Amino acid sequence: TQLLEQSPQFLSIQEGENLTVYCNSSSVFSSLQWYRQEPGEGPVLLVTVVTGGEVKKLKRLTFQFGDARKDSSLHITAAQPGDTGLYLCAGARGYGKLTFGQGTILTVHP
Amino acid sequence: SAVISQKPSRDICQRGTSLTIQCQVDSQVTMMFWYRQQPGQSLTLIATANQGSEATYESGFVIDKFPISRPNLTFSTLTVSNMSPEDSSIYLCSVRSSGANVLTFGAGSRLTVL
User: Fold this and answer.
1) Tell me: the pLDDT tens digits for B85-103?
2) Interface of A with B (CB under 8 A)
3) Residues with Cβ < 8 Å from A21, sequence gap 6 or more?
4) CB contact, 8 Å: B42 with chain A?
5) How many Cα neighbours within 13 Å face the side chain of B9?
């Protein structure tokens, strides 16, 4: 089993602050995905990164895939209460099963 | 992407009983999966639901406890049998999009066993 270590587990911040969530592994993944889940809903895909060193931006969210394709980060600029939720990273090796990180519960206070 | 309807959305059950969760997809999909999740935590894969054959279970999960049906390419059920309080969890159906190894999830079924 390829472990994917996600940190921090909890983040509680004020509106307007910046934050970064990390996913690290000793294994190489062909792609790395980020999902966000709100209470009472299933996880929803935010982005997939596939190339080492790749950076993708989704409004105030910036996703980066490490050069060696073993790690990834999610950076949120000027967080808003609507960003509150559970963030999950997931690594894929080809079409095999996804490996999920432990999750980060983000709470953004107005 | 596919739209998944999952029901029930939540239920409260007595220990020793069984509950069947249904997952309906609005399009034909090859790969369907069942996950378990404790609130606020990560996802644990229970099994892959195979159309026309027995499901493929992950370590720690067995067919007698979690029987799965997959009669066609748009529908699957997961049964949680002989429930105990330890089975209280969120159960999620998911499908893999064609051409990419990404998942679309149902809204989940929150099960509480008393």
Assistant:
1) 999 999 999 999 777 788 9
2) 6, 30-31, 33, 35, 40-45, 48, 86, 88, 90, 92, 94-98, 100-103, 105
3) A6, A7, A8, A11, A73, A74, A75, A87, A89, A104, A106
4) yes
5) 7
